[in-house]
Amino acid sequence: MTTIRQLIQTSPTRANELLAKLAETSDNAVKTRERLLVDLKSELELSAQLEEEHLFPVLRKHKETRDLVAQALNDNKQALKLLAELEQMPKGSEEFAPKVAELRKVFQQSVRDERKELLPAVIKVLSDEEAQAVVERIEEGKAEIEETRRAEAEQRRAEQRRERDRADEALAREEEAAERERRSREVAHETAEQVAQTAEVINENSRQVIRSAAESVERIATAPISSGSLFWDAMFGMWGFPQSRSVARSSTVPASSTRQSTHEEEVIPLAEETLIVGKHTVNSGTTTVRRYVVETPVEQKVALYDEKVVVERRRPATDAVTGEALTELTVEMIETSEVPIVGKGVKVREEVVVRRERTRRVETVRDTVRRDEVDISNTRERSSNKRTELAYSRK
User: Fold this and answer.
1) What is the sign, positive or negative, of the torsion defined by CA atoms of 225, 229, 232, 233?
2) How many C-beta atoms lie closer than 10 Å to residue 228's C-beta?
């Protein structure tokens, strides 16, 4: 079981260790100094809070320890004031180490005063039951504060994990968007290649059609003229039209004219146009999100205390001489005033997420395509009638 003596003697051990580590750091160890300073502030504030809440109210009830309580409060305020100055000071400056040494000196003097003056007075004025009750309340308060701090630290860690998760999700969304963009470019490239290949196939088919038509025209031009009648064919043979004229006449025949073929088989190509639709990505707009800083004046009221030394004369309660008399005595009491210390913390108020969302739409592309058709007619009966009329005229 912890006693009041053990509590007062061992409570500053952790703070002394942190001060010693802080004094050994160099000006380049900025991060280490910041971490040690945070731990030291937590330790000193916890110790001062527990003493002011559970120990000092009990000691103020006794006349012997009332002045010691005021001195202890003054020591705590002075230490916390130096600690606040260290927090505001750049951690890599040359003035940091001397200020740490000053804080360490003040704290160690306060510890010595508590062990030499406060502890004997506490043991003298408090009974064992009162001292043990104070120890139990201090330990319970310390456990509650540490539990609260652990919960806050766990909450901060959970918030940091959520922040990391949100950052990972945002990064994953960006990577996914980049992958979709890459796939879109690949699909567009493949579509362009397919369009080019299809166009090449169409060009090749067109060239084949043109060559077939030219070959057909050449065959027609070089073939002997036949009217379908033996008489007229003989007459044309006797007249002996030059071959060159036949070729020239055939070459001027329109593409839609009727021509006769003496070949056993004619191939008439029927061409058809196909509609080829590709895709091309264009810039349809740009969204710009700019973050900027605005300054808003704020104010907050804080209660400050000033301590002034009051000197008064009064008649003694008794005529008996107490303590030293007829000797020189000098008493010094420090006046203190609280001043506000302003700091600023930064927290994430909200997030703005900028991302691209892909939506699908269907557009109808309209155009006209051409194709070849055939019209088949039979002229057998008309040729037979011509031959009959020729026979009657010969008679």
Assistant:
1) positive
2) 14
Rounded distance, CA 100 to CA 97, Å? Answer: 5
pLDDT over threshold 70, residue 20: yes
Q: Where are the alpha helices (DSSP H) in 240-379?
A: 243-251
Q: Which two tokens stand for residue 321?
A: 């001489």
Alpha helices by DSSP H, listed for 319-379, are none
Tokens 């879109």 belong to residue: 184
CB proximity list for 280: less than 8 A, separation 6 or greater: 188
Question: Alpha-carbon distance 280 to 272, whole Å?
Answer: 26
| 268 to 249, 259, 289: CA distances (angstroms) | 21, 12, 64
CB-neighbour burial class of residue 55 (10 A; exposed 0-12, middle 13-18, buried 19+): buried
CA distance 74 to 68: 10
Residue type, 229: S
Sign of CA dihedral 157, 163, 169, 175: negative
**Distance of alpha carbon 24 from alpha carbon 96, whole angstroms:** 12
SS3 assignment, position 335: coil
- CA gap 185, 4 in Å, rounded: 77
CB-CB contact of 275 with 366 (8 Å) = no
Distance (Å, whole) CA 96 – CA 82 = 11
Mean predicted confidence (pLDDT) in 129-140: 84
What is the rounded average pLDDT of the residues 76-80?
88
Q: So what's the pLDDT on residue 248? A: 40
What is the distance between the alpha carbons of residues 25 and 32, in angstroms, rounded to a whole number?
Answer: 8
State the virtual CA torsion across 112, 113, 116, 119 in degrees, nearest 10: -110
Is pLDDT larger for residue 338 or for residue 218?
338
156-169 tens-digit pLDDT: 888 888 888 888 88
Residues whose CB falls within 8 Å of the CB of residue 107, separated by 6 or more in sequence, listed in order? 12, 15, 16, 19, 44, 79
Neighbours of 8 (CB within 10 A): 19
Radius of gyration, alpha carbons of the chain: 54
Q: Where are the alpha helices (DSSP H) in 114-127?
A: 119-125
What is the Cα–Cα distance from 96 to 26, expressed in whole angstroms? 10
> Cα-Cα-Cα-Cα dihedral of 116, 120, 121, 127, to 10°?
160
Q: What is the pLDDT of residues 242-252, one digit of tens each?
A: 444 343 444 44
| pTM (2 d.p.) | 0.41
Tracing tokens 């806050």 back to the chain, one arrives at: 152
